[in-house]
Amino acid sequence: MSERLPSVPKLQFPIICHYRIIAVNRNEISVDIESVLKKFEVKTKLQDGNKSNKSNYLSFGVDINVKSKEEMCKVNSDLLNVEGVKMVL
Q1: Which of 46, 47, 67, 84 could form a cystine bridge with 24, CB 3.0-4.6 A?
Q2: CATH number assigned to the domain comprising residue 75
Q3: 6, part of any domain
Q4: Burial class (CB in 10 A: 0-12, 13-18, 19+), 46
Q5: Is 25 inside any structural domain?
Q6: Residue 60 phi, psi (nearest 5)
């Protein structure tokens, strides 16, 4: 018997996406991230999140108004190109 997967609703753009950014804890990392965010329609300022147990890593959160799937991918790509950013969720 084959199981049917639930259908995934298609995204309707523009959409406000919440991004969680995991990065190495280094001086100016938030400044570098914010310089990338200037290219996009940011709805909330970059928010500090958690630190890892040894404070080697930090997390940040930000909401961005994304106008297309291509722009969504560009946000992800541009953030991952920041030195020290390890993951974008």
Answers
A1: 84
A2: 3.30.70.260
A3: no
A4: middle
A5: yes
A6: -135, 155
Kindly report the pTM of this predicted structure.
0.87
- For residue range 31-75, list pLDDT tens digits in order: 999 999 999 999 999 999 999 999 999 999 999 999 999 999 999
Tokens of 49: 């999140």
Cβ atoms within 10 Å, residue 74: 14
Q: Is residue 3 part of a domain?
A: no
DSSP 56-82: SEEEEEEEEEE-SHHHHHHHHHHHHTS
Is 36 contained in some domain? Answer: yes
Q: Which amino acid is at 21?
A: I
Distant-in-sequence, close-in-space partners of 59: CB < 8 Å, separation ≥ 6: 20, 21, 22, 23, 48, 49, 50, 51
What is the DSSP-derived secondary structure letter of residue 55?
A: S
Q: Are 24 and 86 in contact (CB under 8 A)?
A: yes
